[in-house]
From TrEMBL:
It is found in: Cell membrane. It comes from the Bacteria. It comes from Virgibacillus salinus. This is Uncharacterized membrane protein YckC, RDD family. It is a multi-pass membrane protein. Its main location: membrane. The chain crosses the membrane at residues 9-34, 58-76, 106-125. One of its GO terms (cellular component) is plasma membrane.
Length: 145
């Protein structure tokens, strides 16, 4: 069996930054196509800032469904940001995860975010470089071989 090196906090953080940039570009393209001026306005410029623009809603849905859930459970084993950083999400048996596990992993992100993102930071200080969501779902984020 091949030996995989666990991916730590900072490389995973970089992958999320790349995903964020890509999803912003997708949102901007959608905003241009549907003439959504609110997407490009500064926060606080409008009387009611509680509501997101339609382009933001669409790009957030694309991010969750496609980038986080579908890409992770596909043959790519990770989002475009993870692909760019040469890391992947696997089961503890080092095999591709299922769609159901990918969905569960997404919902476990909410637990990792509470309180103060400590569940994500755990990937920086435990030996196996696992975040709380990885522990809950029995997954690993490792470098590609």
């Amino acid at each position: 069996m091949e030996k995989y090196k666990p991916a730590g906090f900072w490389i995973r953080f970089l992958a999320n930054i790349i995903d964020g940039i890509l999803i912003y570009i997708i949102g901007a393209i959608i905003a241009i196509l549907i003439n959504d001026e609110r997407f490009f306005s500064s926060p606080g410029n409008e009387a009611n800032t509680w509501y997101s623009s339609p382009s933001e809603d669409i790009s957030n849905l694309i991010y969750v469904v496609v980038f986080i859930i579908v890409f992770t459970a596909s043959k790519y084993k990770g989002s475009p940001g993870k692909l760019a950083c040469r890391i992947q999400v696997l089961n503890v048996e080092m095999t591709q995860i299922s769609m159901l596990k990918s969905i569960g992993r997404f919902f476990a992100y909410f637990l990792s975010a509470l309180p103060l993102g400590i569940g994500f930071l755990m990937a920086g200080w435990n030996e196996e470089k696992k975040g709380l969501h990885d522990i809950i779902c029995s997954t690993r984020v490792v470098y590609r071989i």
